Amino acid sequence: MQIQLIIVLLFLSTTVTLSKKVDEQQCEVCVKTITVFANTLSENDKSKPENIEKAFKNYCSKVKVDSKEHRLCYYIGGLETSATYAIPDVSKPLSWGIPIEKICRERLFKSNPQICDLKYEREIDWNAIDLNKLKVRKLKEILSDWGEPSDFIEKSEFIKKINEVKSKYIGKQSNNKDL
């Protein structure tokens, strides 16, 4: 009886871990870029990996330099300066009709985990943010982006400086709450 109970518990625990929701932000740059690229392909090109590879290289040559998409192209091998060549990891599954999320989050992630580390920058909602909950690194980054000195030691000093100068950079967006 106890063995059956243990087996049932093990089954339930594996079922729960397998049914976790996928983080939508995982590989967000890859998913968005490959989706945009796939939408540019004609129906005839979508079924031939060779055509997809040529089209991807062409797509990457037109991507804005120093963007997240450009970095992704570099990682996959779509640029002349790329050190690796993982385009077949995109072209073949894409020609087979495999979902783009699966291509990015499973196949490309296995070959180069840095692909899923690419994330878009999020705008800070100054009306809802609590600076005390941010890490010092993020506080320092905010000041650095504004061009303000950030050579403090204590977290409270970073917060005080941000509160002093935020009106110059944020304007009327955060007037209703002192952070």
Question: Can you walk me through this structure?
Answer:
The protein has 179 residues and is mainly α. It folds into two domains: 28-117, NK-Lysin (Orthogonal Bundle), CATH 1.10.225.10; 131-174, no CATH class. The protein contains nine helices and no strands. It has helices at residues 2-18, 28-40, 43-46, 49-61, 68-76, 88-96, 100-111, 136-146, 155-170. Helix 2 packs across helix 7 (100-111), helix 6 packs antiparallel against helix 7 and helix 8 packs parallel to helix 9 (155-170). The longest helix is centred in the N-terminal third of the chain and has 17 residues, at 2-18. It is flat, with a radius of gyration of 23 Å. Residues 1-19 form the signal peptide. Belongs to the ARMET family. One of its GO terms (cellular component) is endoplasmic reticulum. InterPro entries: ARMET-like, ARMET_C, ARMET_N, SAP_dom_sf. It holds the Pfam family ARMET_C.
